[in-house]
Amino acid sequence: MAIGHLLGSFPRCRERGYWAMPTAPASPSLPTGLTAADVARITAAVAAGRAPATRAVYAVAWRAWTRWCAGRDLPPVPASPHLVCAYLTERAETGASMSTLELACAAIGAHHRARDLADPIRDDTVRQVRRGLRRTVGTAARRPAHALDLIEIGTIVDAIDHSRRASARDRALILLGFASALRPGELAALTLADLEPHPAGLLLHVRRSKSDQEARGQVIAVAPGHHRATCPLAALDAWLHQRGTAPGPVFTALRNLRLPTGDPISATAASKIVTRRARAAGLPAPHITGHSLRAGHATTAAAAGVPLDRIAAQTRHRHLKVLIEHYIRPMEALAITTSRDLGL
Q: How many domains are contained in the chain?
């Protein structure tokens, strides 16, 4: 029994673009030998196969496709390859980026495969159109986040006052993020139960990450800093003293910037904290994001002569090529450029 037919036993949440958790089958017949509860559990497991962020962006892309089809009085599924080509070329003409078009293809293809329908995205015509659009629209990446260095980190935390609870939280988030090389979402997801203090430092238990979608769990070590003003463990201890010992997220939202609510901050909120604090310190905030902490860890460690395999172990890059191309090579380009030898 194909999984698409199995999921077809239940109504889909069309508005949101992914399957809801229904309580009753859409038709009186169920797959042989399975109960409604069986199918509901399987549906939930299939939905969990993609990260929440992935499901969310698929939903946005799917809604855009269904709106376009509705404007032509056509059903979104099944879709012919030529209809998909018309959609992609029209979106490209109106300014859609190649990443947006590729996301549309992923969402359209996923919905067809889930219904056991022929995937139009795999058609040769669609492939040729996508290839052509890559040449005409382009696939240039956006400017990467600025990699913060040690001096900039010091400038940011020095500019944070001590008058509010948010000050201690933000200082701890920035220093721990830089020292651990965690992603903004991973910082936001940390709970007190994920912290394991040791005499030599602190172990952070990351329950799920971009490189660990199946949630096997990863452990990240953080050593004490050489200077108390920039020590991540001292900053974290100061924040936890204000936060209290109640179970829950390490970095909580604050009510009126004062009392912890007990609710976790989001990955977006974590990133905005870094941007806001950088702006307050007079740094070029438009290109400083939550990822600037992770990028800064990698480039600062490389500049200090740390071997790439040790950096990759901390950042959890499975492939050194990614680490080199995204973090190390831009820094090396500045070091070896011949423009400094021109006598200008």
A: 2
First to last CA, the chain: 71
pLDDT digits (tens, 9 = 90+) for 281-328: 999 877 899 999 999 999 899 888 888 888 888 888 877 777 777 676
- Rounded to whole angstroms, the Cα distance separating 264 from 83 reads 43
Expressed as residue numbers, the domain containing 79 is: 3-136
In degrees, rounded to 5, the angle at the alpha carbon of residue 322 between the alpha carbons of residues 317 and 323 is: 65
**Paired tokens of 119:** 């995937």
Buried b (16+ CB within 10 A) or exposed e, 15-42: eebbbeebeebeeeeebeeeeeeebbeb
pTM here is 0.62
What CATH number corresponds to the domain at position 243?
1.10.443.10
Give the domain CATH number at 35.
1.10.150.130
Whether residue 129 sits in one domain with residue 235: no
Strand 195-198 relative to strand 201-206, pairing: antiparallel
Look up residue 111 and give its two tokens. 């919905």
Q: In this predicted model, what pLDDT tens digit does every residue of 9-43 receive, in sequence order? A: 333 333 334 333 333 334 445 566 778 787 778 77
pLDDT digits (tens, 9 = 90+) for 64-93: 999 999 999 999 999 999 999 999 999 998
* Domain boundary, last residue among 89, 104, 136: 136
CA 277 – CA 329 distance, rounded (Å)? 28
SS3 307: coil
201-206 and 218-222 as β-strands: parallel, antiparallel, unpaired? antiparallel
Closest of 100, 111, 106, 140 to residue 126, by C-alpha: 106
Beta bridge pairs of residue 260: 254
Looking at the predicted structure, is the pLDDT value of residue 106 above 80? yes
CB atoms within 10 A of CB 117: 13
How crowded is the C-beta side of 238, counted as CA atoms within 13 Å? Answer: 21
Percent of the chain scored above 90 by pLDDT? Answer: 47
